[in-house]
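Researcher: Can you fold this with zinc ion in place?
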Amino acid sequence: MSKYLIKNVNLGNLDDLSTKRVNIVIENGVFTKISEKIAREDAIGANVIDANGMLGLPGFTDAHTHMAQSFLKGPLDDLPITEWLVKLFTIDDHMSDDDYYYGTLLGCLSSLKFGTTTVNEMGDMARIDIQLKAFEDSGIRTTYGVSTTDIAENEVTPIISVDQALKIADEIYSKAHGANNGLISASVAPAGLPAVSKEMAQALKKFAKEKDIVYHTHLGEGKMETENVAKMYNLRGETEALYNFGILDEKTLLAHSIWLPDFELDMIAETKANPVHCPNTNMKISDGIPPIAKMLERGINVAMGCDGEASSSTRDMIREGRAGAYLQKAVTLDPTVMDAATTMKMMTINGAKALGYKDLGQVKVGNQADLILVRMDDDLSLTDRQHPIGNLLYAGDGHAVDTVFVRGNLMVRNKKLQAFDEREFVATCNDRIERLNEKIKNI
Ligand SMILES: [Zn+2]
């Protein structure tokens, strides 16, 4: 593995939003030194990057993704969630394996360019090999599971048995866990209780506990669907059902978590489960606004996710963080809620923690070297050297990201992907999307 010396970087502190000019040494994928002075040995055998004018931050953690939907920005615009879901499943059947490969890869590469170094994917059970190849080819750090369902929420829900879901979980665990030199981990990812029985949820949780892996699911996304789950189990809410089933713990990620009354927030706090805030999707398909301020008051570890682009239309965590912060400020009438430091931590270390990483989400010696450098000296909207982190969140976007390392691997430099010809890749995706749009135009 290569050694890097990154000189003159303004390293951001996400506790107080300050920056400090330092030099960073990366060796064997780990931060080995962060210091104000450069020693002679730091440069020996190192690739040197001068980060003068750049802000250094930990890479972002996108804690809820459906990457193949990167081919579906557009055809599902402006639909309500129920109709959106039916159309999504129907279109899915028209996507070829190659569409899935390129769609997933497009999502991963967009994420990397916008500074995301870790993603938590809920993929497709029929495309495991194809998707794993795309994650591996992209080089992004991935927690991978596939959506499984055994209750027909609508006429196109793909139903499987509990046994089949366990077989799939086992297949993913043996193929994915530790793959790509440890950059890929396995999870279980049942879709959510509107379409998952108690038996399937509990069987997959048992599997996840045995293997010590993450349980990733949707929770409380659609209002009607959430109410239906409560009715189905004669309970007061969907979270109460997960709580009673023994699903909630510190290795559970709960995408959306919108329709939760206070007593259910207490259950999340008690069990240390991790909600994932996905504001762009929540707004665009009119899911609603989750009680993030109340979660933060209770000390809950809230992460952030861009979800799939069929609903959010973005892989940019900076846009996601900003949308989430603004929504909470507006709905609580309190501008101090989700302040810049809190939001930036939700976008980085909270997600890493939720996924079980103890050495990720912070730039410090001994941690895995997931680092982004953001160019602050050529962007008219990012002027002001005293407030770079807040300005990046509130005034900037992912296009300001210049350089990205994933565990010491240089993925993006000078705003260009290192392992891909971007023009050629975009042309390939556009040709495929054009053909797919033609196939699905009457759906
Ligand atoms: Zn989702």
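Model: Folded with zinc ion in place. The mean pLDDT is 97.
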